[in-house]
Design brief:
single chain; 245 residues; alpha+beta; three-stranded mixed β-sheet; two-stranded antiparallel ribbon; 7 strands; 56% helix; globular
């Protein structure tokens, strides 16, 4: 009979191994990310608890869209009879697995995502207010947002059934390079967050929605600003850019 190192029966070793694996993944996917987020928001003047609350609010808010406009354009929406969920930690999308349902026509909606747009914009407004006493702070934020927005506009692409999508690490990379090369150190974290988040939202989503040619190529029933394909970019920009800056 096989014996484990922690007892006579192998089940003891299996239990200990399972606990160790659980602790490893808990450390990798929960403790370390929380520490990174707390450090990023600490550089912006928020306490660790406030940083964690913001993180939780953004992740929960990512599941909710607030409709701001209903277009006259009609798009085909699948009548799901059998679905599967696909995606990653930042977005999920459902797809029909068979053709037994009939497509229906639905008016296309434009919405703002709570976690990917509303909360980052509120934070950006707060940090703009906090940095109002720094000389040249507002122009630096506008400059950074313009550079990031231009890069995001150039690389954002329509994604069938989702809307606009952008390479997730592009906005934080552009933000970090811009802030490192141009912005004074004392205001770099604030400029990184404000310019990075607002530039990503403006360039990857808002500007394209004003472009009729791009808008006509988007077949999603809901075009969510800061949702689906851009939420991850906005989230990582706000965290990584601040840390590096």
């Amino acid at each position: 009979m096989l014996r484990g190192p922690f007892g006579q029966f192998p089940v003891a070793s299996l239990i200990v191994g399972a606990v160790l694996v659980f602790l490893f993944f808990f450390l990798i996917f929960f403790v370390i990310p929380l520490g990174i987020v707390s450090e990023a928001f600490a550089r912006l003047g928020l306490s660790p608890i406030q940083g964690i609350l913001v993180l939780v609010a953004m992740l929960i808010g990512n599941r909710f869209d607030l409709t701001v406009h209903v277009s006259d354009r009609l798009v085909r929406v699948a009548a799901f009879t059998s679905v599967q969920f696909r995606g990653n930690m930042f977005w999920f999308n459902r797809q029909r697995l068979d053709d037994s349902g009939e497509d229906i026509l639905k008016q296309q909606e434009i919405a703002v995502n709570v976690g990917g747009c509303v909360i980052p914009c509120l934070l950006a407004a707060y940090f703009l207010w906090q940095g109002r006493g720094l000389e040249g702070f507002f122009p630096w934020c506008v400059m950074a947002a313009g550079v990031v927005g231009a890069a995001c506009y150039a690389f954002a692409k329509p994604k069938p059934g989702v809307g606009l999508s952008i390479p997730v690490f592009l906005p934080p990379l552009v933000t970090v390079i811009t802030v490192w090369l141009l912005v004074p150190r004392e205001m770099a974290p604030y400029v990184a967050y404000v310019g990075g988040c607002l530039g990503t939202l403006a360039g990857a989503d808002v500007a394209h929605l004003f472009n009729k040619g791009t808008r006509d190529r988007l077949d999603a029933a809901v075009l969510s600003i800061g949702g689906a394909g851009t939420f991850g970019a906005v989230f990582l920009t706000g965290i990584l850019a601040v840390l590096v800056a």
